[in-house]
Amino acid sequence: MFDWISGFIDTVGLVGIALLMFVENVFPPIPSELIMPLAGFNAANGDQNLVAVIIAGSTGSLAGAVFWYWVGMRIGTDRLKRLARRHGRWLTISPDEIDQSNAWFKRHGGLAVMIGRLIPTVRTFISVPAGVSEMSFAKFLAYSTVGTVVWTSFLTLAGYWLQSQYEKVSTWINPISTGIVVLILGWYLWRVATYRRRVPKEHDRH
């Protein structure tokens, strides 16, 4: 994948970086941990401007975040609650818990979005609950921008400083990403297994 990403960036330039980061946010298997360090390495070689690389990567990443925010808005609370009534066990959430989550997100969601944008795997989907809870777009964009620029800058500067060893960034971060995926999967399975304890069947129908 390194060769393909490298060739794409060499061919398309800054627009290619933005496009790859957009796709990375929409389709997570294309990791930013490969894209931005390579772009930073190119900047260290003088092929591209470092600040322009960070701006391009952040712009593409934010576009992907906005896409998932829009998806959350389209789903909406009412539709999600209907799905929870029908498939609550597999969604691991009840209609009442959706209301509680929305209330929490409206109080603390900005910080959750900003921190979520710094966490591998979580950063892709943190925008969905922001959209579902109808967080104002301006607030969502502001917090997302801070988290996104910090993450993108970190990856780019790591590649810039490591130069030809930029692949090490992915080596460092991949175990963290894998650990987070395992934790999320374990949490999901626990929620499925304990759903009836948390949400009695009679209550779930209301």
From TrEMBL:
Task: State the name under which the record lists this protein.
Answer: Membrane protein DedA, SNARE-associated domain
- Show the taxonomic lineage: Bacteria, Pseudomonadati, Pseudomonadota, Alphaproteobacteria, Rhodobacterales
**Transmembrane segments in this chain: where?**
12-30, 50-71, 140-160, 172-190
Sorted alphabetically, the Gene Ontology cellular component annotations on this record are: plasma membrane
Q: Which domain of life is it from?
A: Bacteria
Mode of membrane association: Multi-pass membrane protein
Please report the stretch or stretches of sequence annotated as the VTT domain.
30-160
Principal place where this protein is found?
A: membrane
UniProt subcellular location: Cell membrane
Keyword annotations for this protein, in alphabetical order, are:
Cell membrane, Membrane, Transmembrane, Transmembrane helix
Q: Which organism is it from?
A: Loktanella atrilutea
